[in-house]
């Protein structure tokens, strides 16, 4: 079994040599490992694409959602299985797949799964004219928060998203939104829309709590017109999934979605900017093979 291990050493504020050594040791106990230390986005992208081009059996990546997204682009519709070892800020894909959040524990679980041949095919979203996404595509307030959080250098972790939320709420505006699915056309004024392949975004927020990456469909969460005060009351319930009970929230399921409307919104997916609306998204069942916890 050939495994390429790509590590972002700056992930999580910086991985120690001891942690890196333990990650490598766990994987080397069950397969042949080639290790790549990636110090830039370009270097990471080149490394993951080379691993797939060289037909590695497993591509293991250590870092956050950024490196996970690059690995998804490389592994989608290929024969190389993706093994995630979370060590970043959000870790939303690994969370959605039930992988331990601590990197050494995750490496141990991934090594056990590789040894046992435990794999799983999961769905991916595809943005027309752009790339793949594995977690959530969002537009509106949540995308603005994501963009703001990416610009902030302090604080770290979840508090960065919390601060970005407060700053974006100051300029809160509802905008026209059109949602077209294979079964419905919805024209409304909205605060945000989230298209979920998995439940989480923003470092563990279950915006689409019932989303399942193995069911061949997206879960959509649409927040309509709400005042700033009402939204402040709703936001704490998002962390428990109870926001779906609010009358301003509409949920849909769809295999393909077109998002439009005169809003100028920029969509984000897996925490990465995609394109401004309108855009079309389709669900591709089983597009990615992942190493799955036993």
From TrEMBL:
Organism: Saccharopolyspora halophila
Pfam families: DAGK_cat, YegS_C
NCBIfam families: YegS/Rv2252/BmrU family lipid kinase
Protein name according to UniProt: YegS/Rv2252/BmrU family lipid kinase
The entry's keywords: ATP-binding, Kinase, Lipid biosynthesis, Lipid metabolism, Magnesium, Metal-binding, Nucleotide-binding, Phospholipid biosynthesis, Phospholipid metabolism, Transferase
Start and end residues of each DAGKc domain: 1-131
Any one Gene Ontology molecular-function term assigned to this protein's record: kinase activity
Coiled coil start-end: none
